[in-house]
């Protein structure tokens, strides 16, 4: 079932995961996209302010995006996002972390310029198995309204 704008009333939307993050994927992501020592080298990481090997914040964002896609965006009449309003990294991503993503609909409004769509603003928070919040972000997506999505499918 395709989710449309009307399926996103403000409030708690869902909890997704857990998803385990391995040391190997932290190293692979860092080697390609963020090759800073605290993401690649255990010894250097132990001397950093993070006090141990940690995943890149950008890796964590990528994982959050994947969890959102698998959880609901992949079956949403999404037209994309105009960007991220807010992003904070609060604690390090560690090898072996089991991540859980909490998603809240902060706001849902019909677009004034394109009334066949709505703008749904999500507030997402990811935490590890110990309950420690690692990151949060606030981001809108543009979603077709139900009547518009039905017409599009024809």
Order of helices and strands: EHHHHEEEEEH
Give the total of beta strands: 6
What is the straight-line distance between the termini?
15 Å
Largest sheet entry? 6 strands, antiparallel
Task: Describe the fold and architecture.
The protein has 154 residues and is an alpha+beta fold. The chain is 29% helix and 34% strand. The protein is built from five helices and six strands; from the N terminus they run βααααβββββα. It has helices at 23-33, 37-40, 42-47, 57-71, 146-153; strands spanning 11-20, 78-80, 86-89, 98-110, 117-127, 133-144. Strands 1, 2, 3, 4, 5 and 6 form a six-stranded antiparallel beta sheet that branches. The chain is elongated. The model has no long low-confidence stretch (mean pLDDT 95).
Name a few traits of the molecule.
154 residues; alpha+beta; six-stranded antiparallel beta sheet; 5 helices; 6 strands
Provide a short characterization of the protein structure.
The protein has 154 residues and is an alpha+beta fold. It has 5 helices and 6 strands. Strands 1, 2, 3, 4, 5 and 6 form a 6-stranded antiparallel beta sheet that branches.
Q: Can you lay out the helices and strands and say which pair or pack?
A:
Blueprint: E1 11-20, H1 23-33, H2 37-40, H3 42-47, H4 57-71, E2 78-80, E3 86-89, E4 98-110, E5 117-127, E6 133-144, H5 146-153
Antiparallel strand pairs: 1-4, 2-6, 3-6, 4-5, 5-6
């Amino acid at each position: 079932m395709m989710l449309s704008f009307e399926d996103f009333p403000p409030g708690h939307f869902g909890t997704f995961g857990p998803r385990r993050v391995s040391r190997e994927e932290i190293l692979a992501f860092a080697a390609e996209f963020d090759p800073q020592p605290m993401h690649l080298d255990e010894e250097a990481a132990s001397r950093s302010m993070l006090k141990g090997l940690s995943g890149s914040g950008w890796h964590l964002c990528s994982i959050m995006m994947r969890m959102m896609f698998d959880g609901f965006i992949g079956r949403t009449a999404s037209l994309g996002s105009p960007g991220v309003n807010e992003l904070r990294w609060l604690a390090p991503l560690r090898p072996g972390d089991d991540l859980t993503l909490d998603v809240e609909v902060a706001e849902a409004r019909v677009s004034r310029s394109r009334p066949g769509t709505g703008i749904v603003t999500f507030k997402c928070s990811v935490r590890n198995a110990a309950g420690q919040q690692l990151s949060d972000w606030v981001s809108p997506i543009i979603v077709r309204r139900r009547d518009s999505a039905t017409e599009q499918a024809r």
